[in-house]
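Quick start: what a row looks like.
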Amino acid sequence: MRLFERIVFKKEISSELKQLIKSDQFAYKEGTSATDALIMCHHKWLNWLDGDVNHVRVISFDLKKAFDSVSHNIICKKLGKTNINPYVINWIRNFLTDRRQRVIVNGIETNYVDINKGVPQGTVLGPFLFSLMINDLTVKDPNNNILVKFADDMTVSAPVKNNYDSALAEVDNSEKWTETNRMSLNLDKTWEMVVSGKSTNPLPEPITGIERKTWLKLLGTTLQNDPNCWDLQVNNLISKANGDDEDGDDGDDGSGDDEDGDDGGGDGEDGDDGGGDDEDGEYTTRTCYLTT
């Protein structure tokens, strides 16, 4: 099945990727990486602060169980709006539907449960389908703000200048998108950092419900509210080299990784997320074996 997926992806989908997936997505695409995403963010902050911007609000969003929450109906509708061959879209629809899973504990079997959402883990098409799912999530004010995605890690940067501050509107925009697409934001793992340069202006008011931090760990790199300070990142690297806990006291890195542990990194150009096949060798059913 994986071989057939690769054939379908390379022959029918890969040539459409550049036109399909927006440039704000840096994962699962040939020629882009987490480093490119970080450089884009940091470079934009410095450019803003060198101009007439007082501060930059940086909001790291976390989607609850992002990969497991993808609605099959919604992703199929989005596929229908692309230029992908309709026969291939029908095949993908069949590929997603009629999946079941069960659990076996000490030889006792549960009933099979139908699965009507989630991109299948360990498949070639999974990363592409997820990228397409969040492809239409954009910033409300693209003339001023930027959104950078790496798989399900999403970071909005919004400049604050004079009386202009659109960060709250961007949070509302993201919440509306998640509601429309039957997903949800995990506000407990969504953080804000205010990046400041030489401005002496007071910081903008915090956004209700979102914790403000003086640093964020984005895509494995610790970024501080002073864009020219790298002390925490250097200390983390030294601690890691010494075998200490990289993330400090509480171990909470603020990286925005989704709960299913898929980080979206290190994938080949065919979008294979590197996961294994289903336990019983089939893609339409899954059995999980647990022991006590």
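That is the whole record. The radius of gyration is 21 Å. Residues 1-241 form one domain.
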